[in-house]
Structures are given as C-alpha cells and as structure tokens.
Amino acid sequence: MSVQGRNVEIWHRPSCSKSRGALEILREAGVEPVVVDYVANPPTKARLRQAIADAGLSVRQAIRSKESEYAARGLADLALPDDVLLEAMVAAPVLIDRPFVFTPKGVRLCRPPETVLELL
User: Fold this and answer.
1) Is there a cis peptide before residue 99, judged by omega within 30 degrees of 0?
2) DSSP codes of every residue in the chain
3) Are 71 and 48 in contact (CB under 8 A)?
4) Is 110 annotated as catalytic?
5) What is the pLDDT of residue 1?
6) Catalytic residue among 3, 16, 57, 84
7) Which residues contact 92 (CB under 8 A, 6 or more apart)?
8) Which residues pair with 36 in a beta bridge?
9) What is the average pLDDT value for the chain, to the nearest integer?
C-alpha cells in the first residue's frame, strides 16, 4: 500500500538543505505532501510535544542548539524542563529541528533526508 500525498505532511523550511532534500525524496516517490511552513505557522505546544514523542525523540533531540535563539534564551541549561523548551520552540519556531514528516506509517525527524524512506 502506497502513501498518499494528502496523508503526508512535512514541516518545511525552504532555506534548509535537509528539509529540501526530504521534500525532493517525497516528490520523487510520487508523493505531493501538505507542506507546512512551520516558522510562519508554528505548531501548538501540544502538537509539537506529540510530534516529538511520535518520532521517538526527547525534546532536547528536537531542538536546534546552533540557532542564535538557543543561546539568547538560555536553553543550554540541561536542568530546564521540557515545558520550558517546548514553549521556547513555539515562540521561536526556528528552534524546531527539521524536517518533521508525518505519514500513516509514522513520524520522523528526517535528518538525514533519506530517513523519509522509512515512512513510504
């Protein structure tokens, strides 16, 4: 059974090579996903928490520590609870690692982009 485009969503950032790569792999596989610019339209805290959990990640694994916002918000403190990190990610969505891809087969943070093949 193949995955249909209407059942596939990607949290995409056009400036990110990993995100562009995952989107290209999807399209090469004949899947036209729902493309969500998650910086312009950030997920809710609850949706982000669920996406991270469904991908089998910790909140720390889903945050972009190299973004200037990370240091500016003091997020390097390992004692910070997940709720603080999630709130920062929703307030500054550039902190959300990308691309998250959602299909009926699951959710993955597609780094490297070829990880998306697990979902097809």
Assistant:
1) yes
2) -PPPGGG-EEEE-TT-HHHHHHHHHHHHTT--PEEEETTTSPPPHHHHHHHHHHTT--TGGGB-TTSHHHHHTTTT-TTS-HHHHHHHHHHSGGGB-S-EEEETTEEEE-SSGGGGGGG-
3) no
4) no
5) 40
6) 16
7) 67, 69, 73
8) 11
9) 94
DSSP 17-47: HHHHHHHHHHHHTT--PEEEETTTSPPPHHH
Exposed e or buried b for every residue in 40-65, given b needs 16+ CB within 10 A? eebbeeeebbebbeebebebeebbbe
Give the total residue count for the chain: 120
Residue type for position 74: G
The ranges assigned to domains in the chain are 1-38+98-120
Half-sphere exposure of residue 106, counting CA atoms within 13 Å on the CB side?
15
Q: How many CB atoms lie within 10 A of CB 25?
A: 19
| CATH superfamily membership of 1-38+98-120 | Glutaredoxin (3.40.30.10)
**What number is the average pLDDT over the span 14-38?**
95
